[in-house]
């Protein structure tokens, strides 16, 4: 599909300035907040009106924007980008009884604010889009990018997946039963046997093209599915694996998140793979959010380029020094499923 | 690469709840904009809007939707979706095939329930049934589930160009052979949220909007939904075909969060790119369905960019003078209107235009007329500089 | 209120309203243009400042273009507030 050349990640872990994922940051009040950098190189005056999605998204993209001569478009996936500003603006509407309101939060409330600010920061007038398909928003952005690279083989694109924990979104999802009611330390995360998980956030930015030379990793295939039926998910994964029968998958990055309702899907994925394939988990690092699979893809790139797999990630099997073919399986709220195969470039 | 053909259309707008009613009203030059009756906002008495004069409950019962978590945006989407399905004559097998994609677009999504969201998000009173319905994707996740679809599903939000991008995404999936059919479109409903937002930006017109007129005072909001069934040429043999999705281009203006650059760099590049992608010359375009919001900035910049592309631009109109600006639905609604232009070889009057703006120096078509139309360009430009131009052609 | 006092208050309000967290009141000169090369504010900010004038000083500006004449620098804003403020 495409080759990843540069990666950047702002997450709840030490992933931005350097990658120190052995030392685990743990959730506070069932939330894993992103560690935000100093943002020294942001365009003048731009930070003050940005919501967190835009801030961490641009913060993660800036090193990439500065490193390359140029790219041909910006493709963003975000599940709830703009939500915080939406609800702040909403609050103003109610509190001032629809009086004269400041437009700043309204302007930032649209999900495309990040992609738009990125085009301003990089003066990029190319393709610019924001995919918001909840738990598959990043996958839709990645598939879009793969299509662009089939249409324009020599181009290079900035692909990102970004979401924030907004206090409002957290409240809504809490009411809807998606977060654990009991306080959970990172250790008890997966063995809690209760419903719900911990909230997370993060921004991953990738520079991708069709050029194998010097690439960090190759995204070989991405497939998505909507179903609540575990059997259908299993059949889908089976077909996916049959397409890659000659690929020696050596690690499953599982999006398991401690929610007992989703265990069956993740168990299916583990059971379909050969017994000797190691299984690693990542949601205790980034928390649950719609584009968390982008964090998984960033991790896969790191593991493929030789960053050792931290012991806290390993669920099953032995840690190897490097991995060549990583399958990422993620399930969002028991409805949206994604399968990504990432390989080392020969 | 396969041609991408339009084989079904469905629409609901202030001009009526069907393609037939919309077509008739366009021909007659009817304006569906008035002070809203159902919108709960103090601005309902001040700003006219393109409101669909049918309650959510009535629409729900017509569609047999009993689920109480469904919002008005979703109901409008379902209404247009069903009409498009019927029109294209898709069988259950075709609809549920893994090779049939659903690409939707919206900007308001479930936030049309402004007061409910405020109460839920601030923990005031009982939880509403809408907790899972506020985001944009809820609209299309609902359709995907309701119609038991199994193909790729996506939701796009690029503000006012959203559904133009949904059409483009679906067309590209087909052209690249990733699916054989795509049902593409968008929906948005009037809301307290957007009317206050646009008012804060001082771009709502207290009168009925007058695109391109020297006395235009801003835009009117509207609501609606439209879907198009796109099929790969080989799949559409022996079927009724309306038009071809011939060209498309998405660009960024990279200038400002809510206004377009003076020379319309983004709009210019989108129109030029659409011509290149459709392998057409500027002179091939017979009609432009302009973005034409009737804001001072848009109409001036859009026409300037049109001059850069076309020299003397072809006939152009703004159907926002009929139905207001339907935001995330507008690209799809205007695609359906472009289909009407092509299959009937006719131009519908752009309404409420009387005086040429000296900064524009151009007049939209203001009367109904027959015109040989092979290619229609449809422009959609959104906040954040998201510009998309589409070209629909006679098949 | 003394003019200097009003200027200081207005600068504080501008900083708070526009979230110019990197600035202190003394960083804004009385005659420094608010838009363009000076403070570098944009058209959204001008709409925000119109809301500031209404909420803090009871000044209603209906046409944003009229606002542009008032929102030149701190001096012009203070002059206008002194003449038209109702709070």
Question: Which features characterize this protein?
Answer:
heterotrimer; A: 346 residues; alpha/beta; Peroxisomal Thiolase, Chain A, domain 1; eleven-stranded mixed sheet; 10 helices; 32% helix; B: 395 residues; 2 domains; ten-stranded mixed sheet; two-stranded parallel sheet; globular
Number of domains of chain A: 2
Major pleated sheet of chain C: none
**How would you name the CATH homologous superfamily of the largest domain in chain A?**
Thiolase/Chalcone synthase
| Overall SS class of chain A | alpha/beta
Shape descriptor of chain C reads globular
Strand line-up of the largest beta sheet of chain A: 3-2-4-5-1-6-11-10-7-8-9
CATH topology (fold) name of chain C: Non-ribosomal Peptide Synthetase Peptidyl Carrier Protein, Chain A
The rough form of chain A would be described as globular
Beta content of chain C: under 5%
Can you tell me the CATH superfamily of chain C? Answer: ACP-like
The total of beta strands of chain A comes to: 11
Radius of gyration of chain C (CA) equals 12 Å
Structural class of chain C: mainly alpha
Proportion of helical residues of chain C: 55-70%
Supply the number of structural domains of chain C. Answer: 1
Tally of extended strands of chain C? 0
- Write down the oligomeric state: heterotrimer
Task: Write the SSE topology.
The complex is a heterotrimer of chains A (346), B (395) and C (87).
Chain A: E1 2-10, H1 52-67, E2 73-77, H2 83-95, H3 104-109, H4 113-122, E3 127-131, H5 137-151, E4 156-163, H6 167-175, E5 202-209, E6 217-226, H7 230-243, E7 251-254, H8 263-272, E8 278-281, H9 283-286, H10 292-304, E9 314-316, E10 325-332, E11 336-343
Parallel strand pairs in A: 2-3, 2-4, 7-8, 7-10
Antiparallel strand pairs in A: 1-5, 1-6, 4-5, 6-11, 8-9, 10-11
Chain B: E1 4-12, H1 19-28, E2 49-50, H2 56-62, H3 72-88, H4 92-96, E3 100-105, H5 114-121, H6 137-146, E4 153-156, H7 162-175, E5 181-188, H8 192-200, E6 221-222, E7 224-232, E8 243-252, H9 265-277, E9 287-289, H10 296-310, E10 315-317, H11 320-323, H12 330-344, E11 346-347, E12 369-370, E13 375-382, E14 386-393
Parallel strand pairs in B: 2-6, 3-4, 3-5, 9-10, 9-13
Antiparallel strand pairs in B: 1-7, 1-8, 5-7, 8-14, 11-12, 13-14
Helix pairs in contact in B: 3-6, 7-12, 9-10
Chain C: H1 3-17, H2 43-57, H3 64-70, H4 74-84
Helix pairs in contact in C: 1-4
